[in-house]
Amino acid sequence: MTVSTVDGLRAEMAVGRGGFRLDVTLAAAPGEVLAVLGPNGSGKSTLLDTLAGLLRADTGTVELAGRTLAGDRLHVPPHQRRVGLVTQDTLLFPHLTVLANVAFGPRAHGKPRRAAENTARRWLSEVDASELAGRRPSTLSGGQAQRVALARALATEPDLLLLDEPFAALDVDAAPALRGLVRRVLGVAGGRRATVLVTHDPLDALVLADRVVVLDGGRIVEQGSTGEVLSRPRTAFTARVAGLNLITGTASGDGLVTADGTHVAGMRGEPLADGAPAVAVFLPSAVAVHMERTLASPRNVFPATVAGLEPHGDVIRVRARGGPPWVAGLAADLSPAAIAELALEPGTAIHLVIKATEVTVYGA
């Protein structure tokens, strides 16, 4: 293998898959967790398959821990990459015990049986699954199987760990426990291993990730620290994931102007030139719902129609639709009492009212 000076992961690559093309540059330092978000079809699976070696990049390079895995006609096969993969489907060998499943990787890499089983027992202990060692995969719950799958991936001592929606198939009780366990386990090896986590759940990113990359159409459209990306989204998808409202347009004076000419009053979150692409971001809790239009200079008032009502903790989230495309998907959080008082139901004509001081405008 060609030796490089890169630590951790660095990938600069393009790969085609049917009519789809992924073209990205990203990096993850040793010990860092990089979360990858994006709508369905954005390229998340293609990215993981290429990093794992299941797909060959058309152009570019993939470097990991000082080794070049792809580039200049080089393609290192998956079993030689030192990459661990955990998916929704644990893919445990049904005919092997849990201990044998976890020991399989070290054995395949040349460790003697006793040493491989010792490694397997150590990682089963790390994921709180030692008592499962003698059981078969068919007897495990979903949460138990994911613990074993994580132990199996880590037992190979990978330089890169790929987590593909590892909590998506778990119930509401198992997911938080496993999420906390993964956070602890990822710190066991200190700063040696890079991790790439594909998820649809912002809680996964908030709990586990140091940085976030957002894919759309095979390209990176947002990236930065987890807190920055989720608190200052620049795309509608990220805003929805973060539970925020977002309106796109261009910066203008004290706010933003949408494509249809509507002025949205707000506060500048950063210096912006008038006419620059921009987004207005605000919380659903900052949106009031009135049946009649309310005229007040420091407030934004937009006509809309109720698209749906969604339980959201202690409140009901009202989803809106309307004439201009930017109204679709805007949300307001109201109490059940307010919903009943206003007699809201899908199709009800309403007005969304947002104080300008609750709206922040950022560059897009």
TrEMBL record:
Residues 295-363 form the Mop domain. One of its GO terms (molecular function) is ATP binding. One of its GO terms (biological process) is molybdate ion transport. It comes from Herbihabitans rhizosphaerae. The lineage of its organism: Bacteria, Bacillati, Actinomycetota, Actinomycetes, Pseudonocardiales. This is Molybdate transport system ATP-binding protein. Signal peptide: none annotated. Residues 3-242 form the ABC transporter domain. The keyword Transcription does not apply. Keywords: ATP-binding, Molybdenum, Nucleotide-binding, Transport. SUPFAM superfamilies: MOP-like (SSF50331), P-loop containing nucleoside triphosphate hydrolases (SSF52540).
